[in-house]
Amino acid sequence: MAYVSADTRREQLIEAAVRVIAREGADRATTRKIAEEAKAPLASLHYCFQNKENLLLAVFTQLSGEMPIEADPPEGEDASLGRIMERRMTSAMQWTVENPLRARAMIEVTLWAERYDPELSVSFYEGFFKSSESDLRRADTSLPDDELHSVMRVGMAVVDGLSLQMLTNGDKERALRDTATACAMLKAFLDESERNTV
Q1: Neighbouring C-beta atoms of residue 92, cutoff 10 Å
Q2: Strand, helix or coil at 110?
Q3: 161 — phi, psi (to 5°)?
Q4: Most buried of the four, 16, 32, 44, 186, by CB within 10 Å?
């Protein structure tokens, strides 16, 4: 049997976990099934991650790091809050459309964390929230913090909901059309809010 480095084995196990979680759900994704999917000894999974919880956290970290969240429009383009939100939401949904298996695994791990470690699931969203806030703060906006935070949460909720719909019905074109509609609605709201606060 050829030697496999710990880093390579970790990557193999994370990828195997993504496939098993997407297929069977996080609860039914046992360490034994994941090791079998990776064609690796069960002991190597425990050596690399110690337990299932650490492996699932590694899966979430890997997948959330893959999701491209484009925020800044190209030079010379509108850099309004609405435009930045549109770019973020559209790039997140494009990733979901192009990676349905990975998106399903990410949702499964988030729901698993909510059931078994609520603080961990809260930290998942807080990470997205903080990265969103730092991007959106670059926009020239007069919205107070509480309204900006509300807009951010609504944007995340739209992406979550449209992702679930796309994973359920498989209609990728509709998911992107619905994303464009949601972005237009949010931009109209933000334009109106900006006019009212000036």
Answers
A1: 24
A2: helix
A3: -65, -45
A4: 16
Q: Is 20 in contact with 37 (CB distance < 8 Å)?
A: yes
Write out the two tokens for 69.
């969240």
Q: Name the residue with tokens 């906006």.
A: 141
Q: Residue 164 and residue 76: Cα distance in Å, rounded?
A: 35
Give me the helices (H) in 99-171, please: 100-116, 118-136, 145-169
Q: How far is CA 13 from CA 29, 47, 52, 84, 180, in A?
A: 12, 11, 11, 36, 36
Closest Cα partner for 60 from 28, 87, 26, 36?
Answer: 26
Name the token pair of 107: 């949702």
Report residue 54 as tokens.
């650490």
Tokens coding 110: 């988030």
- Scanning the structure block, which residue is given the tokens 């679930």? 164
User: Average pLDDT per run of 10 along the chain, which is 198 residues long?
Assistant: 82 97 96 96 94 92 81 64 87 95 95 87 78 73 82 91 96 97 92 66
Q: How far is CA 43 from CA 15, 17, 195, in A?
A: 17, 15, 61
> From CA 88, how far away is CA 64, in angstroms rounded?
14
